[in-house]
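Hey team,

Filing this mostly as a record. A colleague (T.K.) asked me to run one chain through the structure pipeline before their review meeting, and I want the input and output archived in the tracker in case anyone asks later how it was produced. No errors, nothing strange. Just documentation.

Input sequence:
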Amino acid sequence: MNCMEKDYHQSTEIRKSYEILPLQGIWSWLTGKEKLGRKPLWESNSSELIVWSLLWVVIGLWLTSLAVFYAQSLSAYIALYIAGALFSTAGARYIVATIIHHGVHGHLYQSQKMNKALCEVLSTLLIVQPYESYRQFHVYEHHGRAFSTFEDKDLAAIYQLGFTPGKSKTELYAHLFLTLISPKFHLVFFYGRLKSNLVGVPPYRLVMTLIWWATLTGMSILLGTSATILILLLPFVVFYQMTSLLHLLTEHVWIVRGEGESVRESHINNSLARFCGEICPKSFAPKYIGHWAKWLAMHLLVHLPCRMLIVQGSLVCHDWHHRYGTVRQWYDYAKLREIHAHKLSIEERYDYHDIWGVHNALDYVFSSLSRQERSELQTARLTYRLN
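Output structure:
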């Protein structure tokens, strides 16, 4: 399946093909699509996934530090640095886009004071948007009536960055490439992150920010310029911002809500599942060795990095979240989505948008935008955010 499917059975057949392999829990995590009725070895919870996200960052910092200070050969340096940068960036994105995200929804713990405190600490450390402003635009606007309108700051960001309706797919792909490597994009994005930690924040948050920035300055002096760039700036600023854009572009179909379309309908119509994987070859017979080689290469070079960098945690099933944003068991996203999807299929009301492969999700979004009428949007007037 190379594009979007609104058919439960076709999508499920891809997941079923993984049953030829052992360790089904791994494939449920990697693909993001659960097997109906599968019993996991243990039940996850918020605390466990918070620890995992922090552990990814620690592993990343350790590996990049090993590469910079201790690698004895170029090959060891490259291998250690790539693995370290992958974990550092993936961990940072996991913390922001999954942990803090569910924190502002109030889903991490019963105590909202604890949710807020945790989000404030984590967002300070990663220099991203504070709890209150994130909660306001995301919970009350993006998940509310502003969704798929010019008041939606996520949609406004997409259009402000130049991914506007009516452009051809070629134009959109070229613009994406240029944006990802644009110094202006990264400077504006990072400036916004810095500003959000200084302007309009309560006194305690300003104190936290200044103390942390002083600490980072001291660390940078000790590390030196090149080590600071390689260990801190590239993974937590440049790579982070590149993957953030790719996530934002693919989580929804960024089309303004049409006349007569209800808010709930727009949440359903414009939200995507971004499963990471593709159908397995039918058997291990010698004639399928080429298929397995391609399958393995795609999983190692595309699907696994995308799962870690772009659709961490529950983001892979972000379409379910937009239907059930008040459910507290966010860590059971794949199981709960599968139960609901199966129910809709039995009732012949299946309306989820299943896309296998983040690259296919990107192509689907760009195809949808390109089919819209080109218009002269006053994007400069749009209020947007990047986090």
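Quick notes for T.K.: The beta strands are 4-5, 273-275, 354-356. Residues 74-104 form the longest helix (31 residues).
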